[in-house]
Amino acid sequence: MIWMIIGMAVVTAIPRFLPAVIIDFVKFPKWVDRWLNAIPYAALGALIFPGIMNVKPDAPQIGVIAGMAAILLAWLNLHIILVVGGAIISVFVLTL
Fold this sequence. Notes:
The chain has 96 residues and is an all-alpha fold. The chain has 2 domains: 1-47, no CATH class; 54-96. The protein has 4 helices and no strands. It has helices spanning 2-22, 30-53, 60-75, 80-94. The chain starts with a helix and ends with a helix. The model has no long low-confidence stretch (mean pLDDT 91). This is AzlD domain-containing protein. Keywords: Membrane, Transmembrane, Transmembrane helix. The chain crosses the membrane at residues 6-26, 38-55, 61-94.
């Protein structure tokens, strides 16, 4: 049983560590580097957008307004805690 657990751990670890090891030895063209650098932002947007639209399902404008407030606060270079707090306060005020 222990060997099966060790085997499953190795099989799971290989696809996670192999790209990290290979990436140090491979030189990508500049356009690939730019594309790879955009992936975290795209993933973050894909995770956040549905939550914004479902803050209050019958009034999606509340989430959109709170999201725009967060964008404005981030654009003003405020600390991330203040950005999150501002979005939360916006939702709270708009749902009163």
